[in-house]
Write a structure and sequence with these properties.
Structural class: mainly beta
Helix content: under 10%
Strand order of the largest sheet: 1-2-3
Largest sheet: 3 strands, antiparallel
Radius of gyration: 12 Å
Number of strands: 5
Length: about 70
Amino acid sequence: IGAVGKKGDTTYCCLVIDGKILTRSIQLGIRVGDDVEVLSGLDAGETVVLARAGGLKDGQSVEILKKK
């Protein structure tokens, strides 16, 4: 799953807040194929990086691209 990363025992995802990356620990639940339930760590409406989250660092500037 490209949006979810793992470092040791910590599962995380990367958010975009004010144009910068913020890494946040999350707790996962049920997995079905590529879909995964997030039990805690995210709030509705937050912008989550969907691919290659493992290559990003906290504070890194990013641009959000919209699908055409």
